[in-house]
Amino acid sequence: MTPEAIRIVDSLRREFYSLFAAAMKVPVKITGNSYSSNFPTASWLDNSKRLNYVNIYAYTAPDHLIPERPFILRVAINKGAGRIRIPQWGQECRGFNQGWHFELTLLPEEILDFLPWIVSLIKSHDKGSPPFADEPPHPFELKMYNGLLSNNVWTEKAWQLQNREFARTSA
Q1: Which of 70, 101, 107, 111 could pair with 78 as two cysteines, CB 3.0-4.6 Å apart?
Q2: pLDDT by 10s per residue, the chain, length 171
Q3: E strand map for 5-101
């Protein structure tokens, strides 16, 4: 990634995690930073005392070799538990929530708009309510795999940008 892309991801992570912690209205621990080997995350315990976490990373980003590569981010919930170090939550924690995960792929300028929607999605899941009850702030596409609805969502703008890049590099 270019230094500018790294700066933008770091800044968006800090702002998102801080606002996320306030919006969740439960204890949220924010750990790691881009300068350490720990991947930055925000983690919390759900109603079943299972550990959940969210992380933000660059799905694709410009770099020195391909400066025109699209800048697309991913917000991942409960993905990659084996690779992420999470702080100790004490005796009440019953381990990672391995029964649910979700990924939202979007543009950097869309991420903060999605914060309330993501919090609502998490709270709906924790209550056992239907997902996607709230209207998203930007149109998105739910992906289907083998006839099943996936937990992988792309905003329309991110999907279009990725497809343009694929068409450009495949030509």
Answers
A1: 101
A2: 999 999 999 999 999 999 999 999 999 999 875 544 457 899 999 988 889 999 999 999 999 999 999 999 999 999 864 455 555 666 667 778 888 889 999 999 999 999 999 999 999 988 888 777 788 999 988 765 554 456 789 999 999 999 888 787 776
A3: 29-31, 41-45, 51-60, 72-77
**Residue 9: burial class (beta carbons within 10 Å; 0-12, 13-18, 19+):** buried
Spatial neighbors of 45 by CB under 8 A, at least 6 apart, are 26, 27, 51, 52, 89, 92, 93
Residue 171 to residue 111: CA distance in whole angstroms: 31
Q: How many residues belong to the chain? A: 171
Amino acid type, 117: W
Contact 133, 115 (CB under 8 A): no
CA separation (Å) from 108 to 2, 36, 105, 112, 128? 15, 23, 10, 8, 30
Q: Please tell me the pTM assigned to this model.
A: 0.86
> Tokens for 124?
């709906």
